Amino acid sequence: MAKKPEESLQDLFGLRFGAAPPACGLGQGAGTIAYLAARRTHRQYQERPVDPALIETLAAAALSAPTKGDLQQGDIVIVRDPGTQDRIQALIPEMPWIGSAPAFLVFCGNNRRQRLIHEWRGRPFANDHLDAFFNATVDAAIVLATYVIAAERVGLGCCPISAVRDHATTISGLLGLPDHVFPVAGMTLGWPAGEGRVSLRLPLDVTVHWDRYDEKDLRQRIDAYDARRAQVQPYPWQRLTERYGEQTPYTWSEDKARQYSEPQRADFGAFVRAKGFRLD
Predict the structure, then answer these.
(1) In which domain, by residue range, is 31 found?
(2) pLDDT (tens digit, 9 = 90+) per residue, 138-189?
(3) Residues in a beta bridge with 107
(4) 17-55: burial string, b at 16+ Cβ within 10 Å, e else
């Protein structure tokens, strides 16, 4: 989404992070940096289809991204069958934008091709351990992030869906994913029906480190972020109130503590092992 004329790059970063990085010359890259500073997630879409040729062109752009060791282990499954999209929606009813989106994609890690190449070439596969899974996951994540950028630059809106991993076995079956191919995240895609919302992020002095990792005054910095976010972008609802009650203000750190106070995807390791990966 294009920034408003009155918003400078420093304004955009200041809104998201609370304080902007130092001003610097960006040359011809200024427009791209401004787009990233202002980008927002979209969950509401127009009833307007996305041309399949455009979806594939964006896939080509995304798959032009960096890949570990030229192994090329990120794949994209474009869900065209409305029945399949509806079944995925039924698995994740709390996210109705999955079913209403004009297009739905699933980004997968693929270590299968590499193993097949070893079979065809008669070479041992000497890396059957955690790194094989990790490399394919990172490749898929890079492809997803690049697809988001490419799609938004042509005016589309996106929303990544990590919840596909809540139902990894079922979704793998729906998509026909063989051993050593696994879903990393889904993504809704369509022409935005609204402006979306800029998500506030932790301050840069929490997440950007110079030379060495540093968490000096971390709690105070998160407390300050909590206060700013509760004022500027309050949560519309609170998690697990039946267990923890209502809290005012309801903060980011309280929401994250509640979110991970319940098991999530505890069976994902078993799913990955069933796909043939060793996680040593």
Answers:
(1) 9-38
(2) 999 999 999 999 999 999 999 999 999 999 999 999 999 999 999 999 999 9
(3) 76, 185
(4) bbebeeeeeeeeeeeeebbebbbbbbbbbeeeebeeeeb
Q: What amino acid is encoded at 128 in this protein?
A: D
Closest by CA to 130, choosing from 109, 151, 156, is 109
Tokens of 21: 């990085």
pTM over 0.90: yes
Whether residues 209 and 184 share a domain: the answer is no
User: Residue 185: CB partners within 8 Å, gap ≥ 6?
Assistant: 106, 107, 140, 141, 144, 160, 161, 162, 164, 165
Q: Which two tokens stand for residue 140?
A: 């898929």
What H or E segment, with its residue span, contains residue 273? Answer: helix 268-274
Domain match, 181 and 209 both: no
- Strand 157-161 versus strand 74-79 pairing type: unpaired
Tell me how far apart the alpha carbons of residues 224 and 233 are, in angstroms, rounded to a whole number: 14
d(Cα 181, Cα 157) in Å, to the nearest integer? Answer: 27
Let me know: does 167 contact 102? Beta carbons within 8 Å: no
